[in-house]
Design brief:
The chain folds into two domains: 1-107, Rossmann fold; 109-152 and 176-234, no CATH class. The protein has helices at 15-23, 37-50, 86-96, 114-126, 133-151, 154-163, 183-191, 194-201, 205-219; strands spanning 5-9, 29-34, 55-59, 72-78, 97-107, 167-180, 223-224, 227-240. The protein is of the alpha/beta class.
């Protein structure tokens, strides 16, 4: 709404915060927070190019917001909330919202995206069976995180939001169709993740070549009319702070 003060939790590169400013130019202030210094620097660069004076970015943990009680009218998050700390994050978000303020956030599960499933299957087939200690630790941490994340279903997340004190909590499921120019964009998105980069760097050269060849072949199943197309399942939770 015009004049609102908006918080974007886990803003990343600032995409959602920028969209708010474009959609509602009369918004008073949008503040994006993220625990990653690199993401905040990237978001600030994007803001400088867009020349938006009502948008700010700060390095900050979502579980320890440095804002006074009731400072924001709206809180949003575009897949930016760490589910391992969901309850603490929701408590802090509730605190900084004014009475009657709105919360809207979305989330997704990697294993529900078929293109990601294919990528994971091919990676599992070709990844090294003699990983370095660093890669062993990364694999263990990733497996723990993904198991925990998937166990927090949309229904459980909805209940957690209600349990911390939000009212009128609703849940909506949406399927988004993603269209990329080619499969290369999808591969680049996945291959640049730090853990995947370590996986590929530790593959023997011939094995890495076979991995890339089979991955390209399997991903052809998602090519429709020369575009790379796949469905992305998301769920949206909205709520209000009681007056």
């Amino acid at each position: 709404m015009p004049g609102d003060v908006v918080l974007d939790v886990g803003t990343g590169s600032g995409a959602a915060a920028l969209e708010v400013c474009k959609a509602v130019p009369s918004v008073s202030l949008v503040v994006g927070i993220d625990r990653s210094e690199a993401m905040i620097k990237l978001a600030r660069r994007k803001v400088s190019l867009a020349d938006l004076r009502n948008l700010r970015f700060h390095k900050m943990s979502a579980e320890d917001l440095h804002f006074p009680d009731g400072f924001f009218d709206v809180a949003i998050s575009n897949c930016g909330i760490a589910v391992a700390q969901l309850t603490r994050c929701m408590r802090e978000t509730l605190r900084v919202l004014r009475p009657g303020g709105h919360l809207v956030f979305n989330d997704w599960h990697l294993v529900d995206v078929k293109a990601h499933q294919v990528f994971g299957e091919v990676l599992e087939k070709y990844r090294t069976r003699n990983p370095s200690p660093a890669l062993v630790r990364e694999r263990s941490a990733l497996a723990t995180m993904e198991h925990f994340h998937h166990s927090l279903s949309s229904g459980i997340q909805r209940k957690l939001v209600s349990d911390v004190g939000f009212a009128d909590v609703s849940l909506v499921n949406r399927r988004r169709r993603i269209r990329l120019p080619t499969h290369r964009e999808f591969m680049r998105m996945r291959l640049t993740r730090l853990t995947v980069k370590r996986e590929t760097s530790e593959m023997p050269n011939d094995q890495r070549k076979r991995f890339m060849r089979e991955l390209r072949q399997r991903l052809q199943a998602f090519v429709v009319r020369n575009r790379f197309v796949f469905d992305w399942e998301l769920f949206y939770i909205s709520a209000k702070k009681p007056r």
